[in-house]
């Protein structure tokens, strides 16, 4: 809690897979959860289970006052659906591939990264 009070932000990575647990939400002072890309990849008209899982994760996160980040966003359709489902932030090839440090600095300076989810008004 001292680290959090000092400004450190903690996120549970790959939420919903492997060893991430709902119990972590009670035990640790976290700020956000990252929805695993395996769920994001499953977002399409034919796979309502991924949509349902992401919606459920978002509801749980909101009830704990956590931010929600989706990993592995590769298409505009995924971005739009994730915004509707309540994701605050997104990362993936839709925004940028992994970059070396010098290119990353240029990328940050360009203002070309729309990493925030669309708001319901947009």
Q: What do you see in this structure?
A:
With 122 residues, this protein is of the alpha/beta class. The chain has one domain: TIM Barrel (Alpha-Beta Barrel), CATH 3.20.20.450. It is 42% helix and 12% strand. It is built from 6 helices and 4 strands, in the order H-E-H-E-H-H-E-H-E-H. Strands 1-2-3-4 form a 4-stranded parallel beta sheet. Helix 2 (22-27) links the parallel strand 1 (11-15) and strand 2 (32-35). The longest helix has 16 residues, at 48-63.
Rg, rounded, reads 15 Å
Q: Report low-confidence residues grouped into runs of 5 or more.
A: 117-122
What strand line-up does the widest sheet have? Answer: 1-2-3-4
CATH superfamily: EAL domain
Q: What is the straight-line distance between the termini?
A: 36 Å
**Which CATH class is shown?**
Alpha Beta
Mean pLDDT: 80
Biggest beta-sheet profile: 4 strands, parallel
Q: Provide the β-strand percentage band.
A: 5-15%
CATH fold title: TIM Barrel
* Classification by helices and strands: alpha/beta
- Helix share of residues? 40-55%
Please give the domain count. Answer: 1
Supply the number of helical segments.
6
What best-fitting shape do the alpha-carbon axes yield? flat
H/E series: HEHEHHEHEH
CATH architecture: Alpha-Beta Barrel
How many E-type strands? 4
Brief summary:
By secondary structure, the chain is α/β, with parallel strands linked by helices. 42% of the residues lie in helices and 12% in strands.
List strands and helices in order, with pairings:
Blueprint: H1 2-5, E1 11-15, H2 22-27, E2 32-35, H3 37-41, H4 48-63, E3 67-70, H5 76-85, E4 89-90, H6 101-110
Parallel strand pairs: 1-2, 2-3, 3-4
């Amino acid at each position: 809690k001292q680290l959090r009070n000092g400004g450190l932000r903690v996120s549970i990575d790959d939420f919903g897979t492997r060893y991430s647990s709902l119990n972590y939400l009670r035990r640790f002072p976290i700020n956000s959860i990252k929805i695993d890309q395996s769920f994001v990849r499953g977002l399409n008209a034919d796979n309502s289970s991924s949509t349902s899982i992401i919606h459920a994760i978002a509801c749980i996160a909101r009830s704990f006052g956590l931010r929600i980040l989706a990993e592995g966003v590769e298409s505009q359709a995924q971005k739009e659906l994730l915004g509707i489902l309540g994701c605050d932030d997104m990362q993936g090839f839709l925004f940028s591939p992994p970059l070396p440090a010098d290119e990353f600095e240029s990328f940050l300076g360009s203002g070309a990264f729309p990493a925030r989810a669309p708001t319901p008004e947009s």
